[in-house]
Amino acid sequence: MRNPVLTTIDLVTEAAQPDDIAEHSPPTLMAQHLRTARQHIALAIESMRLLATLSDDAEWNAQTDHLQQISSFVEDRCALFDLGQRSFLLPDQFQRFSTLLRQRRESAHLSRIELCKRAGLSERTIKNIENALVSPSRDTVVRLLEVAELGLSWTDVLGEPTKQPAESATDSNYNCYIPPGYEPLRMVQQLVRILNGPGGHIEQTYTYLEHRSAIAYMALGHDPAYVARYRAIYPFAELARRIAEECGQTPLKVIALGPGDGNLEVRFVQQLLGEITRPDIELVLFDISQPLLNAAYQHALDTFGEQSPVHTLMMQGNFHDLAMYPQVTYAPAKSRRRRIYTMMGNTLANLDNEPRFFQHCMSHCLPGDFLVLDIRRRQAPLDSGEEAIKKADPAFHKPFPKPLAEWLSTPIRMHCPNLMVCELSYVLQTECPIPGSYSLDAVATVKLNNQAVRRFSMSRAKSYDDALLVQSLARFGWECVLSLPIGPQERAPVAMLLVKRE
Ligand SMILES: C[S@@+](CC[C@H](N)C(=O)[O-])C[C@H]1O[C@@H](n2cnc3c(N)ncnc32)[C@H](O)[C@@H]1O
User: Fold this and answer.
1) Measured in angstroms, how far is the CA atom of residue 249 from the centroid of ligand 1?
2) How far is the C-alpha of 285 from the C-alpha of 341, rounded, in Å?
3) Alpha helix ranges (H) inside 357-465
4) Contact status, residue 280 vs residue 338, Cβ threshold 8 Å
5) What's the rounded Cα separation, in Å, for the pair 59 and 50?
6) Residue 2: what pLDDT?
7) Which end of the chain has a smaller Cβ tally under 10 Å, C or N?
8) How far is 87 from 228, CA to CA, in rounded Å?
9) Where are the domains of the chain?
10) Ligand 1 site residues, Cβ closer than 6 angstroms
């Protein structure tokens, strides 16, 4: 039998890998040690603070602060452990997935070790899944889906979405759906932890979550310069005409992914109404941010009224998990509703990894589904190096826009208690997943009152080469139907694309 002390040390080492906490450690043992560590550290901090008040030695305070850092680390691991305990897959999905993983690995003639290398996972993780011992985290599933030889899809993992009874698909009595698994409090806790860590990368989803961030984002959207240059001049009339040509009088389901305050999305639907003689439109507003979603819904109701051919629904959720929501993904066999997804206001360009989004999150889309996107075009020729891009792109020659800085610094101002200064600037990234694109990363340099300096990458916006983006979309199964400049000149810096699932 192993020495229990050594087991403890093993577990602590593994705690460096969040996935491993969920997948490798016997849960009860781990939970027990985490609880003990938490209690002991809290007691030690209390005693040390008392000692500090009784002694002139300043070192007591300094060491207590150190202990406080250890306490934050343990809290952090407790939260991750807790998260890991919530299994991503339902029990029957897990059983099916574990059998399927073994079958697919064996048919691909991959040993476990080879699969580990390809997926970047430990052998124990694969073994635990195949033996149906430990249910995988979402991240592990994503890594396995990316191993081409296994040929796994989200449908293999999650199964066919449950068929909805016919009447519930058109039930107009509800106006909001919040899927299980959507946990904004937990996300905010994660955000706070990152912002109080050594610095790093904030996934874009987090910057809209809270009410104050949402207010700052809405202020950015209403900034007169931004409205005049972009929002006011979207070519919705031409776009709606083309969709009406393609769809005729078919009822439509417009699924607005990340509608923000809903301004652009509502204008788009208004134009569709103008193009269709007997309109019947279901508008699904899908957003992570409760306050923004609420603003969008209110705006849609105010615009369309209650007795309108547009029935508006809110869905609060994470579009990275879109494939798991039958309310969006399930299309009844006899439904004639044509689906139009929208990602407007740079929503695609803000994603860390667009190919992953198309391959996994949009894998449920059916031939004939549409997607409306807007893009910023790259401002330098394709063969330009970093210096040439910086020279050509006007973003590098202007002060960082104030409303943007206000929005992106809101989470930092809210959650970094010792903040002195927060400055934002653009950093160029040329290693981007879509060929021909580059990214302007908005990086916050944060100075704290103890002299520490941290850097957080708060948001990124890609600029694309039209032709190469269209080629990439074709690889993901989306054919470009229409490309329109946003603005009077053909080579306007921003453009709109209508693409159709092949
Ligand atoms: C760039 S904004 C665009 C908003 C709006 N379409 C506009 O044009 O102003 C991105 C929107 O997507 C939402 N969002 C970001 N990440 C998300 C996620 N993972 N799941 C769902 N919504 C998300 C944000 O809350 C925000 O409303």
Assistant:
1) 30
2) 10
3) 386-392, 402-415
4) no
5) 13
6) 34
7) N
8) 47
9) 4-85, 91-158, 164-502
10) 204-205, 208, 221, 258-260, 264, 287-289, 292, 318-320, 344-347, 350
Mutational test site, ligand 1, from 347, 410, 462, max ligand atoms within 8 Å of CB: 347
Count of CB atoms situated within 10 Å of the CB of 366: 10
Q: What is the CATH number of domain 91-158?
A: 1.10.260.40
Residue type for 80, please? L
Q: What is the pLDDT of residue 183?
A: 86
Distance of CA 454 to the CA centre of its chain: 23
Minimal-distance CA residue to ligand 1 atom 12: 258
What is the Cα–Cα distance from 88 to 75, expressed in whole angstroms? 22
Residue 342 phi/psi, 5-degree rounding, is -130, 145
Other Cβ atoms less than 10 A from the Cβ of 236: the count is 19
What is the Å distance from ligand 1's center to 288 Cα?
Answer: 7
**360 is written with which tokens?**
């996994």
Q: Whose CA is nearest to atom 13 of ligand 1?
A: 258
Nearest Cα neighbor of 216 from 285, 287, 295, 284 is 295
Instruction: List the structure tokens of 362.
Output: 């949009």
Q: How far, in Å, CA of 2 to CA of 9, rounded?
A: 12
Instruction: Return phi, psi of residue 446, to 5°.
Output: -115, 125
Q: Encoding tokens for residue 120?
A: 């970047």
pTM: 0.72
Give me ligand 1 centre to Cα 259, in Å: 6
Q: CA nearest 496: which of 364, 342, 362?
A: 342
Q: How far does residue 367's CA lie from ligand 1's centre (Å)?
A: 25
CATH architecture observed for domain 164-502: 3-Layer(aba) Sandwich (3.40)
Q: What is the pLDDT of residues 429-439, one digit of tens each?
A: 999 999 999 99
Q: How far apart are CA 53 and CA 102, in angstroms?
A: 61
Rounded average pLDDT per 10-residue block, the chain, 502 residues: 31 32 52 82 88 89 87 74 60 85 94 92 89 81 90 80 46 77 89 93 94 95 90 96 94 97 96 93 96 96 88 94 86 83 97 95 94 98 97 97 96 94 97 98 95 96 98 97 94 96 95
CB atoms within 10 A of CB 249: 12
Instruction: Write down the H helix ranges in 276-325.
Output: 290-304
Q: Which atom of ligand 1 is nearest to the CA of 265?
A: 6
Question: Which residues neighbour 362 within 8 Å (Cβ) at sequence distance 6 or greater?
Answer: 322, 341, 371, 476
